[in-house]
Specification:
binds zinc ion, 5 strands, single chain, alpha+beta, about 110 residues, five-stranded antiparallel β-sheet
Length: about 110
């Protein structure tokens, strides 16, 4: 399990797993995105091997992470609303920095918008 997954799982509410592998929850980002609070568990998280994906079927918030990537701002925002504290996020960023695959970012677009 990756450090990112560990951190997320430590702060997640109890989640249901759907048959296609999504862990569903009321999306914490809907209100910030100008939508009504989600009460139908339309936010979905997926952990697959070491990759992480998040998608809300209500407000459309999408983010994720895979090994070799930096922590994206949208994933950081999601972590914040899940209650991950700032110190923990900073530590995670630093730990991930050592593992960043620099090549991935040679065009300056890799991972910058997720
Ligand atoms: Zn949402």
């Amino acid at each position: 399990m990756s450090l990112v997954e560990n951190t997320l799982r430590a702060h997640l509410p109890t989640l249901k797993t759907t048959s296609n592998g999504w862990l569903t929850m009321n999306c914490p980002m809907c209100v910030q995105n100008g939508h009504r609070p989600d009460s139908k568990r339309r936010g979905g998280l997926k952990f697959e091997q070491d990759r992480i994906g998040y998608h809300c079927f209500n407000c459309g918030y999408t983010t994720g992470w895979r090994p070799g990537q930096k922590l994206g701002i949208k994933l950081i925002k999601l972590m914040r609303v899940l209650g991950v504290d700032e110190g923990e996020i900073q530590r995670l960023k630093i730990q991930l920095w050592d593992q960043v695959v620099v090549d991935d970012d040679w065009l300056g677009i890799g991972g910058t918008n997720i």
